[in-house]
């Protein structure tokens, strides 16, 4: 973690590494604009409110290396599209993130249009300068639709990856129109407590965000 010098507000430099095997597809260097005293106000999402969950998703084991299971499978009868200039941070509110994760605050980072939003949930950082608790929303191509388990979240086919204190839900929004078409919304939640399963909170946040993604 590096803090800028001078009289201006401090900045936190964070290197985001993908939890999936497709990390090389999207190397990102993100500057999080940290507020020393309070969280910046979050513009409210559209009037579409959080969706109600029908209960925990039923997950089945899959082979994440099976090509036949991923390039064209992300199809749904309710296709959605994340615009190239979309602010993914608009999909959730600070209070919704705090309620789902139990974090004392949720601080928005500087988004990458149509691609990335990071919410910092703790001031504690790890050895590599990355916050030990954060929520990352990412829009990615169909080729990254990988995971050890498959289920349905909010009515959309989803792959799940789990690590120590980490849960990544990769939600397929529609069938891809090109190899680079970003049709997967990834909700990646990392918590400091490695004994905690973040997937229920990640699923709740995914179900809340999905109704706010425009239809294709």
TrEMBL record:
<feature type="compositionally biased region" description="Basic and acidic residues">
    <location>
        <begin position="67"/>
        <end position="79"/>
    </location>
</feature>
<feature type="compositionally biased region" description="Low complexity">
    <location>
        <begin position="39"/>
        <end position="57"/>
    </location>
</feature>
<keyword id="KW-0732">Signal</keyword>
<feature type="region of interest" description="Disordered">
    <location>
        <begin position="39"/>
        <end position="79"/>
    </location>
</feature>
<dbReference type="Pfam" id="PF12079">
    <property type="entry name" value="DUF3558"/>
</dbReference>
<protein>
    <submittedName>
        <fullName>Uncharacterized protein DUF3558</fullName>
    </submittedName>
</protein>
<feature type="signal peptide">
    <location>
        <begin position="1"/>
        <end position="36"/>
    </location>
</feature>
<dbReference type="InterPro" id="IPR024520">
    <property type="entry name" value="DUF3558"/>
</dbReference>
């Amino acid at each position: 973690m590096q803090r800028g010098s001078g009289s201006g507000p401090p900045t936190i430099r964070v290197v985001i590494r993908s939890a999936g095997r497709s990390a090389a597809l999207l190397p990102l260097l993100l500057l999080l604009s940290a507020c020393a005293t309070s969280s910046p106000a979050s513009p409210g999402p559209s009037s579409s409110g959080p969706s109600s969950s029908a209960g925990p998703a039923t997950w089945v084991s899959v082979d994440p290396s099976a090509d036949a299971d991923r390039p064209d499978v992300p199809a749904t009868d309710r296709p959605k599209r994340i615009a190239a200039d979309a602010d993914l941070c608009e999909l959730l509110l600070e209070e919704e993130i705090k309620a789902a994760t139990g974090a004392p605050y949720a601080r928005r980072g500087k988004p990458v249009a149509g691609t990335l939003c990071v919410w910092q949930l703790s001031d504690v950082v790890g050895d590599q300068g990355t916050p030990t608790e954060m929520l990352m929303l990412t829009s990615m191509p169909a080729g990254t639709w990988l995971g050890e388990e498959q289920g349905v979240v909010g009515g959309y086919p989803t792959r799940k990856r789990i690590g120590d204190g980490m849960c990544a839900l990769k939600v397929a929004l529609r069938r891809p129109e090109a190899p680079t078409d970003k049709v997967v919304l990834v909700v990646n939640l990392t918590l400091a407590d490695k004994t905690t399963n973040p997937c229920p909170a990640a699923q709740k946040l995914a179900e809340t965000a999905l109704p706010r993604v425009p239809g294709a």
